[in-house]
Amino acid sequence: MDEENGRPTLLNYNPLPSEFDESTTDDAASDTQLLNATENVANIVDVTSSAFRIQRKSSLNLPKLMDTEKKFFQLVSAGDVNAVKEFLRDTPGLNTNSVDFKGVTALQIAVKRHNEEMVDFLLAQPEIEFGDCALYAVRDDQINILRKILDAMANVRPDLEFEGCPDSTEFPSYITPLIQAAICGHYEIIGMLLERGHEIIHPHHPRCFCAQCKEESRHDDGLRTANQHLSVYQAISNPAYICQSSMDPILTAFKLNVGLIDCSKTILQLRGAYRKLAQEVKAFAVELIGCCRDSAEVEDVLNQWDGCDFAGQVKFPRLMLAMDYNQKEFVAHPNTQEVLDADWSGDWHEWRKKSELLKLLIIFPRMIMLPYITVFCIFLPLSDTVKFHRLPINKMLNSVASYVIFLLLLFMESNQDKVNQKKGPPNTGLEIPLVLYIVGYIWNTTILALRLGPRRFIRVLVNWYDMVMECLFCIAILFWISAYMDVKKSGNADLERKLWNHLEPTLIAEGFFAVATIFAFGRVLLLLQLNLNLGPLQVSLGKMMSQDILKFFILLMVIILAFSAGLCKFYNYYEGMILEDKSTGVKTQQVDSFVNFRLTLKTLFWAIFCMSPIESADVVIENLPDNGEGKPVTNYHDFTEAVGHICFACNFLHPGGFLIVNMMIAELCNTMQKVIDNVDVEWVFGRSAVCMLYANQTVLPPPFNLIPTASGFANVFGWFKTYFRPEVGKSSTFSIAHCCYVEIDIDEERKSNPALMATLCKRYLKQKEQETSMDTEIQALRNEIKELRSCIKKDELQF
Fold first, then answer.
1. Model confidence over 285-333: pLDDT tens digits?
2. Which UniProt keywords apply (predicted)?
3. Which of 278, 370, 596, 628 is most buried as measured by Cβ atoms within 10 A of its Cβ?
4. Cβ neighbours of residue 572 under 8 Å, at least 6 residues apart?
5. How far is CA 293 from the centre of its chain?
């Protein structure tokens, strides 16, 4: 080797003799010279080739076919079975399992060519290796070839057909035939594999900490496990697999959607793939409800109890389950909304034809009719009047009418003159009705929580709002009682307000009552969700409060706490100092900005909204003693003041301050725009939630719901009767979540209607087949148009 230039040294190289020339006249000499030159060139080529062969020894050791094997592959690819038979007969000892550099075998070629006769012949060969041929057959939707391969694999080893191929160049080792078929969505192959006993083991939740998951996390490769779980989810999320493996495809789609969203939040590196799968599964449930052709089918779907754990009888349990799983598109589908609207107003058809103004004005006569309705509910619970008021729309109107009265009482109580107020609870005569209303709303919330269950109840933000409002009223009432007892004990009811202690029970009760009143009037926003024009705005407001503002508030608090930690007592020494200008008499006092943690936090928070004075960062040092010259002595801590001003300005200009506020504004606008763009889903879902909220309430609104009715007594008597004398299909049940209720055994058809689900699946698959056929025809037409255009261009060029 030539070490200087890195090239192989050409041994035995002699240049052509200088005597060799075409003009040489001596023929014998010239022939001899030509022969010597040719030998030298041959030596050069031979040595050079040897050198290059030495270098190629370091290349990858890929499989290489022999000439006979190449001929065998060509014959298999041509599809001539007789020629292959004759070739194998003439070439004994040929390896039929030979592999080319791509990892392809002869059997794989036959499977890819869809040549069943060739596959039969090769499978009959002794010691044939199957490899990943079954997976190729699945991918190409060749069910007959797949069945033959699986039969041959079962003859070799019964459980071989259920395994993947560890040496495949195209499929990972965890891909089994059923997983591949489910990913591809081949309905017939999935059915055939399920009949043969194939199954897909669902992966555990990403946050599962069972013994099996802990063991796998210690030994398994993280990347392989993540990809395997994604492939399994791709398989079990395919509609073709769900239709054949689940008795209730809609419920399965709901649960899969929730599981996939959880995976997207946990496995962040595959977040996009999981969210895409979640959207596809959600769309599958929506398309299934869209396959219903009449209201009866939609009602059968919405009335299915499978997966629900409500106490007693609940209207449309599947719809409430969809709301729990946040299936907005399913709830907002026109088929679902048509049935919900029909149940909302029942046989009161005139309601739909009334204008918005008349619908609003009808509340006022309801306020007068509430006692009349109460009497009917107490004494005539089976009358037509009570049945009419059991409609969800009437429950809502009665509740709104009663709530208007409650708000009027709150306004009158809050608007009392406090100039001559005495110590102790208010004494306007409105306190007893208000307490009855508050107790009625607490009882209404309790009944709703027991009916829905605590876990489902606390998921709804409106219920949290109601509980906070009721707690505030309860605290105010408790301090009213405390103030009354304090007055009775001390007897100083005429003590002037300015002399009261800052923790006087009367003052605390007023504060909590004021905040509770704000909450009560703010609850009117819930009713705006029913209006097409105001509803989207209310939905946007709810999303902004629960998502955007909360996120940015956390960011702001982190930044403000960071600055507050450094500046909390930066100016503590200067607290209360006053600098007086002797010549003008003007006094300047130190601003209480950075003297303690509370005031520092307050200053920095309001500085973000430009509401803190610019003097907050000034350092004021009081006048120093006279130095004997008769001149005032003034000192300045310029560096300390500079640090304070810089930090004060950075708090405003820092990304956690001014920029984050502007980012929050942009995010709020983006949230509202999303709701407006998707108003048919977002607003309809919110309106449906309000409708179901009133549908699950009692006929009598607070405080009339505190009055015992005949139906209430009947329910209590029925529970005790069933408890002591059990009936067939009924049982008196008690649980911490739902308290006492009568559980009625629901027939299997109401739990999950397999016949209806099968019909919907058939319609769905037929619809998808038509869409696929249409897409194929459109693509073929496009290809024909492209070919026609190219032909026309060629003709134009030739012309």
1. 999 999 999 999 999 999 888 877 766 667 888 998 999 899 999 999 9
2. Ion channel, Ion transport, Membrane, Repeat, Transmembrane, Transmembrane helix, Transport
3. 278
4. 594, 595, 596
5. 30
The dihedral of CA 158, 163, 169, 171: what is its sign? Answer: positive
Sort 631 into a burial class: Cβ within 10 Å, 0-12 / 13-18 / 19+. exposed
How far is Cα 799 from Cα 795, in angstroms, rounded to an integer?
Answer: 6
Question: Can you read off the two tokens belonging to residue 626?
Answer: 């006279």
- Six token digits for residue 799: 């012309």
Of the CA atoms within 13 Å of residue 747, those in its CB half-sphere come to 5
Q: Tell which residue, 92, 124, 93, has the closest CA to residue 107.
A: 124
| CA dist., res. 771 & res. 542, Å (int) | 39
Structure tokens at 548: 């955007």
Task: Encode pLDDT of 488-545 as tens digits.
Answer: 888 777 788 888 888 888 899 999 999 999 999 999 988 888 888 888 888 888 778 7
Phi, then psi, of 113 in degrees rounded to 5:
-80, -5
| Cis bond upstream, residue 625 (ω within 30) | no
For 417-433, what is the mean pLDDT? Answer: 85
Per the structure block, which two tokens stand in for 485? 């007892």
Note whether 110 and 119 are within 8 A (CB): yes
Distance CA 123, CA 5 (A): 56
Structure tokens at 453: 């269950």
Q: Please list, in sequence order, all residues whose beta carbon lies within 8 angstroms of the beta carbon of residue 18, skipping any fewer than 6 positions away.
A: none
SS3 740: strand
The position carrying tokens 């006492």 is 740
Predicted confidence (pLDDT) per residue in 165-220, tens digit? 888 888 998 999 999 999 999 999 999 999 999 999 988 888 888 888 888 778 77
The dihedral region occupied by 754, where left means phi > 0, alpha psi between -120 and 50, and beta the remainder, is alpha
| Burial group, residue 395, by CB count within 10 angstroms (0-12, 13-18, 19+) | buried
In the chain, what is the straight-line distance between the N-terminal and C-terminal CA atoms, in Å? 63
CA distance 188 to 178: 11
> Is residue 416 a contact partner of residue 428, using CB atoms and an 8 Å limit?
yes
Q: Of 129, 118, 62, 119, give the one whose Cα is nearest residue 95.
A: 129
What are the respective helix, strand and coil percentages of the chain, to the nearest 5?
65, 5, 30
Cβ-defined contacts of 191-194 (< 8 Å, 24+):
191/244, 192/143, 192/146, 192/147, 194/244, 194/245
| Farthest-apart Cα atoms in the chain, separation | 151
pLDDT per position as a tens digit, 4-48: 444 444 334 344 444 434 443 344 444 444 445 444 544 544 444
Phi/psi for 171 (5° steps) reads -115, 135
Residue 644, CA distances (Å) to 183, 492, 603, 620 in order: 63, 49, 12, 12
Q: Which amino acid is at 118?
A: M
Residue type, 207: R
Distances (CA, A) of 52 to 46, 48, 758: 10, 6, 68
Enter the pTM of the model. Answer: 0.79
State mean pLDDT over 239-261: 93
Residue 532 DSSP SS3: coil
SS3 track for 425-473: CCCCCCHHHHHHHHHHHHHHHHHHHHHHCHHHHHCCHHHHHHHHHHHHH
- Residue 726 CB-half CA count within 13 A: 9
Q: How many CA atoms lie within 13 A of 384 on its CB side?
A: 2
What phi, psi does 733 have (nearest 5°)? -125, 145
The H or E element spanning position 578 is strand 578-580
Q: Tokens for 132?
A: 């990943």
DSSP, collapsed to helix, strand or coil, labels residue 731 as strand
User: Residues 6 or more apart from 276 whose CB is under 8 A from it?
Assistant: none
pLDDT of residue 692: 87
